[in-house]
Amino acid sequence: MAEKFFRWFRIVQAIQARPGITAPELADRCETDVRTTYRDLRALDSLVPITNEGYGKGYTFAGDFALYPFNWTEQEALVFSMLPSFVDRSSLPPGFDTAYDKVMASHLKQKRRDQDILQNVTDIIQMGSPAYKEESPNYLLPVIQAILAEKTISAVYHTQSRNELTERKIDPYYLVPRDQRFYLIGYCHQAEAIRTFRLSRFRRVEITKHFFRRGDFNLRQYMKNTWSIERGQGQISFKVRFSPVVARYVKEEELFVKPKMTDLPDGGLLFEVTLNHDREFLNWVFQYGEDAEILEPRSYRESMKERLAKWSRLYG
């Protein structure tokens, strides 16, 4: 079995080094006969996307498959690193030890390079810190590492609404940037449900050894009709008229939902969108001041009148 494994590895390596290599050439590289090479290719077909380009054109890989850099999971890397312990070393063909060492060295080198790239990326991303704290730990790097490795994190989180710290186990699914902040969306083991966490409210983050799977979770579906990050259960259909002064700027907004925008004869803009929560959308509308008029729902229009009356009394 060890000899067969070594031969398969040489076949994959040879195809990668020389796309279009023929079966007789592969047999020569592996020091075996052509019939054995064909059997090896059929066996590898279920593991590696090898394709035959046609008579006399040889073998190549479908798509962008490559043996290096390795795309191993940590479990796969661990299993491969233990391979010499499970085989009869006396039956291994010459060169196995050096080939094995090269594979492991390449994997470790790529792993270190990936870590360096990830560190550089997180260093480039400049995050603000809460106004009430002089220093705030940046847990962006370990959270990204946990997402990529599909590992559960153990965390201490500050829940602002209750002003309390809680210890949680979270399966981190996605990082979502919103309004100069990062939010983590993942499965909370304590709540037994998907939850959204503001990254700056973590007080401790540690990557555990436990793996998770996202299953059929779909971020786009989860965030459907969500203006920014706050999600609700209702369906609120808004209509807002923007003046000609700001219409072109509204069209430039990078939004997370798909509104319907209609140009008006005076150069203004009718903006229609259905959302499951109102607060973040209203704050966005308010920034345009007198250049944004809420038309529907009527109840929100009336609430706006009351708000303006309070502001008038406050500044009167």
UniProtKB/TrEMBL annotation:
Residues covered by the WCX domain: 236-311
Any Pfam family from its record, for instance, is WYL
Q: Where is the WYL domain?
A: 139-207
Name of the featured protein: WYL domain-containing transcriptional regulator
